[in-house]
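Inverse folding, one chain.
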């Protein structure tokens, strides 16, 4: 099978909402599947960008994030390009990472089940919050939780992110839903702690958090559900890319 044919089985046009995360997931799949072996060069930026349906500027953000994690390396010159590195060749993960990004993949059934259950609970909670309406005190509490994620230091981000999502779910008004979500969030955090923190992804997540809160405060259940689903999909793309 020609390289173009092999890559075509993985590379596809990404969706607009989570372009960074989905593009990163697909390039990680190329590496993890060995479609481009260690020491070999990824397709040219122009080709990759066209296949993924993103700009070359957006692609470079993805490649920069992968380079920071020691997964690829950019080389200049006549024979330059972006090359796949042997695992751990670049000195280990960047700040904020737990174990190396390509080590200890999660079992697919566990990962898929956690991601699906999380999406069901969070999208439902977001819609319920918007539909029931929040009191002034509850609006303040949700706003404070959002603000804490915006101001959090990198090493504290995941804790504040967890508290934000728990707050949103609790404000849906169902103790049973909150208990179920707390359990699945604990599993999700175990998985998140095995992948690196990527600043570009965190910035994108914050915009989604803000849009989610705005939809809830506007009483727009349909929009709240849609934003929550898109947010969950972005996290799922990262986890599948690093762990599947």
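Residues assigned per position:
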């Amino acid at each position: 099978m020609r390289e173009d044919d092999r890559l075509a089985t993985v590379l596809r046009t990404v969706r607009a909402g989570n372009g960074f995360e989905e593009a990163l997931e697909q390039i990680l799949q190329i590496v993890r599947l060995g479609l481009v072996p260690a020491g070999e060069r990824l397709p040219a930026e122009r080709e990759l960008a066209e296949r993924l349906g993103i700009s070359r500027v957006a692609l470079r953000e993805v490649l920069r994030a992968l380079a920071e994690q020691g997964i690829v390396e950019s080389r200049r010159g006549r024979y330059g390009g972006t090359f796949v590195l042997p695992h751990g060749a670049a000195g280990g993960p960047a700040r904020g990472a737990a174990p190396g990004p390509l080590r200890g993949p999660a079992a697919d059934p566990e990962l898929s089940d956690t991601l699906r259950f999380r999406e069901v609970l969070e999208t439902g909670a977001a819609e319920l919050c918007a539909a029931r309406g929040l009191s002034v005190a509850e609006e303040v509490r949700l706003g404070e939780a959002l603000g804490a994620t915006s101001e959090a230091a990198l090493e504290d981000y995941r804790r504040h992110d967890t508290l934000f999502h728990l707050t949103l779910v609790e404000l849906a008004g169902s103790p049973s839903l909150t208990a179920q979500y707390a359990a699945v969030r604990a599993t999700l955090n175990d998985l998140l702690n095995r992948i690196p923190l990527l600043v570009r992804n965190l910035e994108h997540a914050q915009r989604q958090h803000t849009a989610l809160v705005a939809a809830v405060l506007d009483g727009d259940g349909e929009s709240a559900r849609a934003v929550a689903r898109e947010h969950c999909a972005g996290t799922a793309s990262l986890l599948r890319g690093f762990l599947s």
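Residues 88-104 have pLDDT under 50 and may be disordered. The longest helix spans residues 108-132.
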